[in-house]
Predict the structure of VOC domain-containing protein.
Amino acid sequence: MTNTLIFVDLPTPDVEASTEFYRELFGWTINPRPQGVFHQVVPGEGLHLGIFSETEQYPDPAPLPAQQPRSGLHTRVYILVDGPPGDYLNKAVLLGATALWEQSFWKEFNGHHASFLDPWGNQIVMWRAPDADEASGKDDEASS
């Protein structure tokens, strides 16, 4: 297979705080490689992610010039969640995230989603197909 997405890195000024945020929110295993500079996120099935220091930008051989604060549109990282996206959104907000949109149904793709900006400005969208809820016996706000 060619041209396959294999990894996504999330920039942050505080790798340790970001690690705790995502460990607490999604229950992910996170491997420091090296501690405080770059952490590998192992979310179980699916692609791995990275959390990297904005100042060191490891493993880049030469850090990029300092960037202006981000504003406007961002790359979105979609996470397939095992429960209602709204539940994860509420937990993310309690952990310091900013809600972007509440759980809603996206008819075109037949699934529920909700989104937040993490405390470091990365946009995360939580996704769940209705079929998953029917299979597990859950009913999460079926048609907003």
Remarks:
- The radius of gyration is 16 Å.
- Residues 74-138 form a domain with the 2,3-Dihydroxybiphenyl 1,2-Dioxygenase; domain 1 fold (CATH 3.10.180.10).
- The longest helix spans residues 15-26.
